[in-house]
C-alpha cells in the first residue's frame, strides 16, 4: 500500500514530468511525420529553432517574462487555496493602466514615470482581483467564478479604451497611442525584444519565494491554504487571507502586463496578452505552485511557443499544425500536473 | 436458521484501531434488532461492513443461509439490504419522488424520466406503510423527521428487506421518534427486518425484540429485550474495570477560571437546542471532566468554549470577564490552551512540517520586521520535539507520524506557553496505552502548575481516573455535576450519560416535549 503510494508520488514528481515530456515530444514528432512534407526540417525548427539565432532566442526569453508573472500570481493564490481564474483580464488591464499613466504624464522622467505606471498597473489589477476576494470574505461568493466573470467583463472594457478614448487615430492597428520614448525599457539582447523586465521577473520570483516561505504573512497564508480550520483554531485571521492572496495575485498579473507594455509593445495593442492568463495557470501547475519552479516552467512554455513559431516560418507547417503540436505537449504536461494535484487532494 | 449471520468479522483501521474484533452477529427474520454500545464500540463499522461501505479483514456473511460477498452498497441493495445513515443523503432541491427514484428512474421513451409513473409508484409505498409525506414536495421544505421517512421510502422503493438504521433518533424530536417507531412496527408487520443502532436505552427497551451489546470492538452480550432491564444494559455497555486512578488535586481549588452561565446554542431550523442552559465552573488547579455520549453536546461545548462557535444565549466568563465572541487569537493571548478532539483537521495541518505545526499559535513571537526568525524557530521546535520525544523530527510532515505522535505535537504546542485554562477534548481517543499515559501526565503537570482544565471525553474510565469534578451531559444539558469521590461508581455515571438519571431536571418527567 505504502510502496504504491510512494511510486505514485514519484510519478507525479520530477521523473514524471521528464517522462511526460518525452512521451509528448515523441507524439509530436509522429504528428509532424504525418502532416509535414519535410518532417526533418520541421522537427529541427520545432525543437532547435529557438536556439538558431539571437533574435529567436531573445524573443523566446521575452515571452517567458509575462508567463513568470502570471505563473507567480497563480501560485500565490493556489498556495493559499483561493482560486484566481481572472488572470486574462488582470494582465490585460495592467497593460492598459500602465499605458494610461504614461500617456497622462507625457513629459515625466522615464524612471519615476515608469514606476508610477507600474504602480498604476499593480493597483488596478490588484484591486480587480481583490474585489473577488472581498466578495468571498463578505458573502462567501465563489472567488473562482467571480474572478472569471469579472475578468471577462474587464477584457471588454479594456477593448473599449483601446478602440475608443485612447485610440491612436494615425494608426491602423487596434492599439492605443504610443507611450513616450523615455518609458521604453532597455533592450538587453538586440536585435530581439528581450529587455530588463526579464530581471524584474527573476527578482519577483525570488521575492515571492521569500515572502511565502520566510515571512510572517506568507506562513499564515500557506497555513490557511493547507488547512483553514487548523489556521482558525491556531488564531490566524483566516478571512484576511481570502483577500490578500487575491490582491497579490492580481498585482503580479498587472505588473506582468505593465512590463509588457513598457518593455515590448510601447502601447496597449488589442489582445496583446491573449492566453497569458490561462497559460499562467498551466505554468503554476507544472511548478507545483513553487515560486522558483515557476521560472523553468515559464521557459518551457516559451520554448514550445518559440519552436512552433520557428517551424512555421522556416518549414511547410501552417499555424494550425504548429498550434496542434504545441497543444499536444501542453495538454500532456498539464494533465500530468493535475493528476498529481488530484492525488494530493484525495489524500488530504 | 438466522436470517442474517456475520461470523468472525474483524476490521483493523490503518491507524491501528481494531474496530471489530472477531465479531459474531446474527439477526432473525422479521425482528427488530438493536445494537447498543458506547462511542467507538464498533457498531457503525459493523454495519458499514454489512452495507458494503467497508471491507472486513476477516470473517464471512451469510444471508438466508447463503454466503454472500458485499463489496459495495450496490451489492448490498441487490441483496435487499438498505441503510439509513445518520446524516441523510438527499438532494434538497429535488422533490421527494425525484430523490427516491434517483439512479433507477422509470423511463419514458427510453430517455425521459417518467415523473408521473415515479410519483404513482412512490405513492403506493407511502400509503401502504402509513407515511405522511407528499411525493411532490421539495425535500428542503420537509422537517427532519420527514426527511428520514424519505430515506426509508427510498429503501423500500428499492425493495429492501433488511433495513439498517444508524442512530435514527439522534436528530428527532419526541413526537418524531414516536412516528418512527410506529413506522418500524408497521414495517415489521409487513415482513421486513430492521437493525437499529442506538445508545439510548429507553428506545431499545421500547422498540427492539433483541439486543446485541458491543464494547471496544467486541460483542459482550446478546439478550432478548424482554429479559433485560436498563440497568443491566448500562452495566454491559460501560463495563466494570477502572484501569487507572490518578491522585486528586492536593491543593484546594482556587478561583474560578472559566464559568459558563446558562450557555445555550441553537441552530436555525432545528427544534432541539444543541446546548441548553449549561452551567459549569472550572477553578484553577482543578480538572473538570465532562462525560457524555457523542451527540449530546460535548463537541458543541468544546467549540463554544474555544471560541470557534458563537453561543446564542448565556455568558462565558474567563477570570470573571465575558469572553463570548472573542476571536481564538484573543483567547490564546488570555491564556487558553486547547487540544481539540479533531486532531487531524483542526489540531494539525497534515501536509505541513512538525515545526510549522508547532508555531501556528506562537509564530508572532518569532518576528523580525515581518519575517520569521528561522534559527529561533528551529531551536524552539527542536526543544519541543526532544522534550516530548516526538519521532520523526521537526522537519517531518505531520501526516507521516503515528496518531500518538501527532497528539504529542499538538500537546507540545499547546502546553509550550504558560496557560491558565486548558481545554482538552477526547485526548486519548485511538491512542495506545503508553501514549495515553503520557497525555495524562502532561495534563496533571498543567494542573500542578495551576491551570484550570476542562477535560471533555466520552471515555468514562479516563474521566473517573483523572477528573476532580465530573459533569455529565445528556441531550445538550448538564445532568450531573459531582465531586469525583471514591464511591462514585461507573454505573452511576453511566446512568446519567444514558439519561436514566438527571439531577437538574426541571419539573415534569418529559422535560423537552415537542412543540404543540
| Beta strands of chain B, count | 24
Could you report the average pLDDT of chain A, rounded to the nearest whole number?
A: 88
What is the correct CATH architecture of chain A?
Orthogonal Bundle
Percentage beta strand of chain A: under 5%
CATH class call of the largest domain in chain B: Alpha Beta
β-strand percent of chain B reads 25-35%
Helical amount of chain A: over 70%
- Name given to the CATH homologous superfamily of the largest domain in chain B: P-loop containing nucleotide triphosphate hydrolases
Task: Give the biggest beta sheet of chain B.
Answer: 6 strands, mixed
Overall SS class of chain A = mainly alpha
Estimate nothing, just give the exact number of structural domains of chain A: 1
The residue-averaged pLDDT of chain B reads 86
Throw out a few tags for this protein.
heterodimer; A: about 350 residues; mainly alpha; ABC transporter involved in vitamin B12 uptake, BtuC; 14 helices; globular; B: about 525 residues; alpha/beta; Rossmann fold; 3 domains; six-stranded mixed β-sheet; 16 helices; disordered C terminus
Summarize the structure in words:
The complex is a heterodimer of chains A (348) and B (516). Chain A is mainly alpha-helical. Chain A has one domain (17-347): ABC transporter involved in vitamin B12 uptake, BtuC. Helices cover 75% and strands 0% of the residues of chain A. Chain A contains 14 helices and no strands. Chain A has helices spanning 2-12, 14-35, 39-48, 54-79, 87-104, 110-139, 143-163, 197-214, 216-226, 228-233, 240-265, 276-286, 294-314, 319-347. In chain A, helix 2 (14-35) packs antiparallel against helix 14 (319-347), helix 5 (87-104) runs parallel beside helix 7 and helix 12 (276-286) crosses helix 14 (319-347). Chain A is globular and about 65 Å long. Mean pLDDT of chain A is 88; it is low at 1-7. By secondary structure, chain B is α/β, with parallel strands linked by helices. Chain B has three domains: 4-238, Rossmann fold, CATH 3.40.50; 243-335 and 418-516, 3-Layer(aba) Sandwich (Rossmann fold), CATH 3.40.50; 349-417, no CATH class. Helices cover 31% and strands 25% of the residues of chain B. Chain B has a six-stranded mixed β-sheet with strand order 6-9-10-3-11-12, with helices on both faces. In chain B, a hairpin with a 2-residue loop joins strand 16 and strand 17. In chain B, helix 8 (230-238) crosses helix 16 (490-497) and helix 13 runs parallel beside helix 14 (433-448). Chain B is globular, with a radius of gyration of 25 Å. The two termini of chain B are 46 Å apart. Classes of the chains: A mainly alpha (348), B alpha/beta (516). The interface between A and B is medium-sized, with 22 and 29 residues.
